[in-house]
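To the structural biology subgroup,

Please find below the input and predicted structure for AraC family transcriptional regulator, which we are adding to the shared reference set this quarter. The sequence is reproduced verbatim from the submission form. If anyone notices a discrepancy with their own records, reply to this email rather than editing the shared folder directly, so we keep one authoritative version.
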Amino acid sequence: MHYSMIPAPAALQKYIKHFWVLEGNVAAPQTPSSFRTLADGTPGFIFQNRDRGTLYQFDKKLPGTFLYGQATRAASIQIEGDFDTVGIFFQPYGLKAIFGIDAGELTDDCQEFNPYQAAMNDSLAGILQAATSREVRIHRLISYIEEQIVRQRKKQDAAIMYAAEKIWMLKGNIDLHELRAELFLTERSFERKFKQYIGLPPKMFARIAKFQSSLHYLRTANFDKLSDIAYLHDYTDQSHFIRNFKEFAGCSPLQLQQLQETVMDSSVTGTL
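Predicted structure (tokenized):
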């Protein structure tokens, strides 16, 4: 199974972290037939060539082309057939800012991308299915997203987009009361708007940002012991850190390092 990341054009980096492509024959020896997703603070998009294979999650058949929301837990996606998959990791506010979708409706869930398109050949899904290469698919996606951004730009809430960016930049270590005051928003308005744009309450999003930062340290082996990561990220102790890690990764730090399954999130993808 071969994975590659494709940077978003500069003009789209405010909305897209990067594109990714997953290709491979699962019948090949020692090739995994699934990949694990973690809580990574981002919604996204996935297209799977239906002529090559079908994706499943929790024994449920997934649409060939779909949007998914923020994840608050780990999950595994399996393939029946071969991977011929193109995906997008959006910025945390991507669903609302690009498509006008209330992000809270897709938290821990997904939605077929063209549910109301009767003529398949006229839909983006049909265009991607007919494309002859991953380069063509990504080009089509870029064009489509650029059009959507133009349509939604006047409706975008710059304050909430800024709030999400600041929480992520500070790795979740932020006083949310001060942030709310900076934006001149009441607690109720801030919570409501944030969930519409991000799909999560601000406090949960900050916890995931902190988890992702700790995961980076785990992956880069930039520590001597787990308690170093715990204290660096203001966890009470190592046990507190491990409990939070298990909540978002579905396993302990040691277990994640021992996984043979490919782990995919918006920061990095690979086998730890």
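Summary notes: The first strand starts at residue 2 and ends at 7. Confidence is low (pLDDT under 50) at residues 116-121.

Regards,
Lab coordination
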